[in-house]
Amino acid sequence: MATTLPALRKQLASGELKPAYLIAGAEHLLVLEAADALRARAKELGYLEREVLDVEAGFDWNRLGDAGRSLSLFASRKLIDLRLPTGRPGKDGSAAIVDYCQAPPDDTVLLVSANDWSGKHEGAWSKAIERVGAAVPVWPLKPAELPDWIGARMAGRGLKATPDAIALLAERVEGNLLAASQEIDKLALLHAGTTVDLPTLEASVADDARYDVFRLADAAIGGDAGRALRIVAGLRAEGEELIPLLGWLLTQLRLLLRVASAGGSVDAALRNERIWPSSRESLFRRALKNGDRAHWERCLAQAGRIDRIAKGRGDGDGWRELERLIAAIAAPRRGGELLA
């Protein structure tokens, strides 16, 4: 049957494991933690042997059946950890999973985890897992749900926080659960046993620009030039240095150039890049639709110019040149005009 993360946690705490589980979704932190919780519970219950199967191109699906038939001489219970990043096993994989679930081996648990999920991913294989075990779709949090998630996570780390502090952190991370988790872990180390209020939270995140760099790149690649340029202005006002900002931008521009140069299916090329979280792929599809290889080459050349200016090896205003670069990334069809 399909279930939820809270129901999964309750089931793990209350009894024996089911023969098979599917945990899938684009919220990688939640998928990873749910899978970790299942692995930990399996270990507690004596599933001491664990076989990891990473599904990549050319994967031999006979390995799943072989894993179900073989047990270690040193363990009586086994966990098969099948990692299916795309959530799409293909024809052979679907048949192998269905066949496995028709007669699940005793004292063996199959965990299938995937980093993407939607109604289009469902099929005979996922229904087969539901019949003998549980499927746990992990949906992205809605903006209104994020403050409650942050509050609960803080409580789990022994922190108390005021509502305005929670609201500020939710605004700051903009749905990035990994960033929120990292900030909460830092607060737990520095302020354990105290109440985190708004001034404390502001002081904690004031000097932490890593969220802004990620947001800057995503806003530009996603075509939101106004928001991206506001982030640039904020970073400049806060006294940030240009060179550290360029590192992440260069990584993303090189990725765009590789995909634009790959030929063939853009979807396949993006999958090969293993963009995290996978929900960001839509930003890159939009940028690649509007900008060709020559455009991304011009953007990289502009980034090189900014780097030389920042290092004192070129003339000009580095921040003004960064604004031109960001505008060109956000509006590829005007790239020739912006970077002329």
From TrEMBL:
Belongs to the DNA polymerase HolA subunit family. Its EC number is 2.7.7.7. Residues 212-260 form the DNA polymerase III delta subunit-like C-terminal domain. Keywords: DNA replication, DNA-directed DNA polymerase, Nucleotidyltransferase, Transferase. The keyword Transferase applies. Residues 21-131 form the DNA polymerase III delta N-terminal domain. This is DNA polymerase III subunit delta. It comes from Dokdonella ginsengisoli. The gene is holA.
